[in-house]
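Protocol step 4 of 5: obtain the predicted structure for the target chain.
Materials: sequence only (see below). No template structures provided, no constraints applied. The aim of this step is simply to have a reference model before the mutagenesis design in step 5. Sequence pasted as it appears in the construct record:
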Amino acid sequence: MKRGKSEPYVRLVEPLVRENGVLRPATWDEALTRAAEGFRRNVAAKGPDAFGMFSCARATNEMNYVAQKFTRAVIGTNNVDSCNRTCHAPSVAGLARVFDSGGGTSSYREIEDADVVVLWGSNAREAHPIFFQHVLKAVHKGAKLFVVDPRRTSTAKWGHRWLQLHVGTDIPLAHAVAREIIHSGLANEAFIERATEGFAEFKASVEPWTLEVAEEVTGVPREQIRELAHAYARADRGQMSWTLGITEHHNGTNNVLALINLALLCGHVGRYGAGLNPLRGQNNVQGGGDMGAIPDRLPGFQDVLSPDVRAKYDALWGSKIPPYKGQNLTQMLEAMERGDMTCVYIIGENPVQSEADSEHTRKRLSNLDHVVVQDIFLTKTAQLADVVLPASAAWCESDGTFTNSERRVQRVRKALDPPEGARDDIAILCDLARRLGHEEWDYSGAEQVWDELRQLSPMHAGMTYQRLADLGGIQWPCYSEDTLEPSFLHGRLWEDDPAERGRPAPFSVLDHSPPVDLLSEEFPLRLTTGRRLDSYNTGVQSGGFESPLRRGETLDLCREDAERLGVREDELVRISSRRGAIVAPVRIDDGLRPGLAFMTFHFPDEIDVNSITIEATCPIAGTAEYKASAIRVEKLPPGITEDDRFTVVPV
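Step 4 output (structure tokens):
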């Protein structure tokens, strides 16, 4: 098999049900009846919280709205989440804690007018290539680009300066930058006094992190830390952007808060061209959260704990939303292991291959009483299901909207009908709701769903379909059909009137917490994972297509480590962690420092990298520490063939 070229997944065009342990074709009536009966049985036996919904970050806003409504109004639980938990839940948690809003604060256009752009833990050129074009425009106009990353990525090659920190030392580095800004008299004291709180405590907390101490802990030369601090603080317009190198840690939310501290310190928020921007990885992961496909917020980021908010939804839906937070994806997996959650409805997600310690996830799902998967392909997750429902491809077979990283809601127009035998996602959800006793569930189309959302979510109220089409998209918030808000958020922080400024933005006091998976003599190398430009997530959609850039899965090592281990380029090696082992070919990457290895998660059908990553999670956001596993690398005995890399070997 050519490396990196998987056999294409075949499109699902008929429902499947499990009989005698095997999935067999079924009619839609049988499959929907079987799906509904399984949900009814489990809820009757153990209550609504025995149910969990995994919604889809690649489907439309409208589908996500209906999916979370199904969970809350039909089943009666807040147990709904999406792959937001896998990637940027810490960003939402951190931004919401400080600003009461979980979205990035700037538009892409503003990036082009920045004086300094900091990409922290982000290989944007490969993971977010559209956004990176805006960064390049800023660079060509004279902006300084600072790239903070353990690897010298293709993004770092464009940087004015590359700061090569040790994995898991983001908070010490941010603290040292903050201390240098304060000690150099570069803090924006007027903004701090006007718009923030907790500065004295924050100042005291960063005091121990001198340039010398930070250099020792992070590996970044003190001169580079000082240069970043002075450039960011002196900039008129400073932009701070980050990706999974910040969030996919056991302390991901604290990492995000450390970057927010720097923006507050310099007044780089609430103004045109100055902001904080998490770069979302999937086409509608922002929209999924906006639509309430998260366990603690209703659509429009309205708090599920608020009686007034719940009352508004209950009045329109005829529901009784539970007055407590649901379980996030990580907590749902734990509830499955305890036996408290016994049935799940998975729409367009592939947790068997996308979750850390993936074999553990497989075992949890395999032990459930009832699993329903709605997807366009028979993924490894769908292969475990009791019922499989063939759905539409949201990007070309559905009408609706998506929301990107800059909070821009844009229309999606149906170009093709789903293949015969597959059905629209919203129609499937409505059919299941009717079978569960909600006869009123019937939407004439996506626009009716969207107009229902606009009644309930103030930040979407002014976005009619016609207006979205006329303007080519609108950033939220948009409260009225007659006005547009500024492209940046939190301008209130600059108001003179305290009443208009509202709640001050708090500084956060944070401690350094090293990676959970400790390095040792047995596991001396640090493995970090990430994306490459040529492939998409677990490869279900991209793996079946040729790409001139694709080289398949490799274990990337620096030249020194390869020589020390006695391995050469393309040689197959055994990579072991405390959870399992895999076999993969070596690739030499001069952008890595000794002790650091890199792999992607794009080819799990060939090499299941997530079988060796650690499930340690952020206690606030529930995101796993994909970026910091401890591994060892061993030569293989003679006679190992290319086919031997399709193996997970228990430790």
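Step 4 remarks: The chain has 24 helices and 26 strands. Residues 50 and 341 are 4 Å apart (CA to CA).
Proceed to step 5.
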